[in-house]
Model the fold of this input.
Amino acid sequence: MYSILKNKLTGFVMFITICVPVRAQVLTYDSIKSAIIQSNPMLQMYSNQAKSFDAMATGAKAWDAPQIGFGFFMTPYQTSYWKPQTQTVDGMNSMMPGMGNLMIQGKQMIPNPSKLRANQTYLSAMSSVELETQRTAANDLMAEAKMNYNEIQIIDKKIKILTEAEKTLQVMITMGEKNMAYNQESLASIYKAKSQQALLKKDRAMLESERSRNLYMINTAMNRSKNILFDVDTTIVVKEYEKDVLDTSDILFNRSDLAAIDKNIRVTQLKQTAEAYKSRPDFGIEYGHMFAFGANPNQFTLMGMVTVPIAPWSSKMYKSNVTAAIYEIKAMQNEKDAIINESVGKLYGLQNEIKSTKYQLELYETVLLPSIRKTYDVSMIAYAQNTGELFETLDARMNLQMTQMQYYDILLKLLTLQAEYEKQLQLY
Done:
């Protein structure tokens, strides 16, 4: 009895669980931004690349490995010379010493300390370029994610409009079919209403497909499963960027791509210094110990060495690299000026477009939408009271829906312009 009751209770709970719709998680743009910064593989790539340069810098002051040698030194080919030999001189026996040496040798080159410091400083600065490039990549990812997020917000509002339109059309169709029994409605009007209902379903399917694409894009940026569903915040924020007073210093302060160019110029200057230091000599020391064969005494060699990098045949490379760095720095400065000039022009253009788009929205909000909605309301009341025709009511319904969709198209354009403006100023 207990097991039967338990099974029934379990089945009831499962039925309730299945019937209750599961709401998708609501993600704000800020939470998406945090997830992208933490998990996006492209951003992690730049971070690891910066760490690799830091690791290289830690070993920049290392010396070359010492060299150790072992072998014969000034040793004759005939082995008979390797040991003392007996020879008669003036009737007396005497010993001739053996010839040759067994040699152990060690050599160590000592690089110029100024070269090592310059190279280490150069490698240490390279990681800063990667980190600024990472911020630039993050800005691009955030701008794209924001645009996709805004598209989902607008699509949700459009789907809501279509849902309401479908319900209204179904009411009209039901009323029209009832009126047909009393010869108060034509079959053509019913077919027209049903065709509009089919078009609404088609538009809804297209919007849902577009919404899924935007979800995939955002999930991809967050580096998680592409099929995870989520809802977005319904609050739409319209900002007054058209009133901003543009200043070049704002661009210089915020833009990481410009900061990356500045860091790259600094890195190139440090590389130029490291190349110039190649004109300074390196040093070396060599020591060898010889074990002589026979009765000869043991011997040693001790030598100091210095490179001569100022020789004409060896100085051409680093001199040409120093000269090349001068032009490379000038090229990067030109690139920076070009980016600033282009960005300022884009920002002025965006401000003008934002102002124009807001004016269009105001016209829709204050004139077009209220007028068309009143037309629809009057037509719907007349049809409900059997004083109007279904054809006119359907046209009024379609005009209202079309105007509402146009309004949200313009609103999406405004949000896209805002996102592009924020991208130019790196305000993610």
